[in-house]
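Second attempt. The first submission of 3-ketoacyl-CoA synthase had a stray character pasted in from the spreadsheet, which I only caught after the job came back as garbage. Lesson logged: always re-copy from the clean sequence file. Corrected sequence (466 aa) follows.
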Amino acid sequence: MELLSFLLLLPILHLLFTIWKWVNDKRDQECYILDYQCYKPTDDRMCGTEFCGNVIKRNKNLGLNEYKFLLKAIVSSGIGEQTYAPRLMFSGREECPTLADGILEMEEFFHDSIGKLLSRSGVSAQEIDLLVVNVSMITTLPSLSSRIINHYKMRPDIKSFNLTGMGCSASLISLDIVRNCFKSYKNKYALLITSESLSPNWYAGNDRSMILANCLFRSGGCAILLTNNNSLKHKAMFKLKCLVRTHHGARDESYECCIQREDEKGRMGFHLGKNLPKSATRAFVDNLRVITPKILPIRELLRFMVVSAVKKWNRRGAPPKGTTQGPMKSAVNFKSGVDHFCIHTGGKAVIDGIGISLDLTEYDLEPARMTLHRFGNTSASSLWYVLAYMEAKKRLKKGDRVLMISFGAGFKCNSCLWEVVRDLDDGNVWKDEIEKYPPKTLANPYLEKYGWIQNEDISTFKLPEE
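This time the job returned cleanly.
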């Protein structure tokens, strides 16, 4: 009888052990951010209106129409007076960069931000198990990840990844690599490095689709320390809830809308096509279609399904011509599952477009607008400056959910949802100046200083000597 009872108990014990093992493994697969450090270059690399105007005037290939185009683009860009540029811009060598210029730009960021991050967290470089670096527009030998490993004397068994060509959405791609590695290895530290090298990528021609990039991109970067060690979750800042990647590279129109290429005279640049807004919208919609069920409560999904069904039914019996119907809201309410929206600072139009699509308020868009104004478009690292703004404003409270949305060449749209693990108020890169934001006005001084060019005649145009 006892033997029979034991035999009957075995399957139950096995089931309980299987459940316990699944739960235990699941806990070790979580992805936490322990700390992050955005990069603020030194003040001698700050570029205001006058400096940017001088850089533009140095390009002898521009005519009146190109100057007018640039003025219009800069004034409406949402970028302010305190963004940063690479050092070679200040020595007037942007048209003849060297490999050393690109490496110097990256190493200044690496040594500053990684050093601060490791020092503040109390984690040594030798404890890092996984290193993922994404810098799209420069490739070196040895790789940038190897340069970091050499500088900080990291372990010989460290697993490293070096990503290039991934564009502005690269930091979430790097995050996905970290997340997947965490599924296979327990109790690990990961260091994610995201930036962009502008030094070798200034466009010196007059193709409008390529000179536009000169107006938008600025220097920046971020170092992020992550772990899947569940015993450290009380020290964590954020916990990753889900991540969705959408890639439309198979569509020729999407693939070609953001592409590095040479112009007709062989000058290398970054082409931003007219079909970019359409491609971005398509990728955004497809990405939302996948991530929405993962981040919104069931009640909101049911509400949307009912309202959509009613709207579809009403269309079958549309009112006669000349009559009116009141508007019926059918859009998904993303605020039912998201507290904060961390939007890529690709430009004012990008921020406005996402705001309209998700029915966001100016309060929701403020972190992205202020980041664009203060730091410009820092490519893949821009999301983390937006996140730091929220932290500095003391908006991030325990249990809040933050949705990150990024776009990149390819064409790609990537998004993820974070849960705030504890109240946050450090401020990171915004710490010393957050009280100044938002400013009373975001009016761009370019129009006041260079607006005269709009009244010039193309036949007599000549830049004044200063």
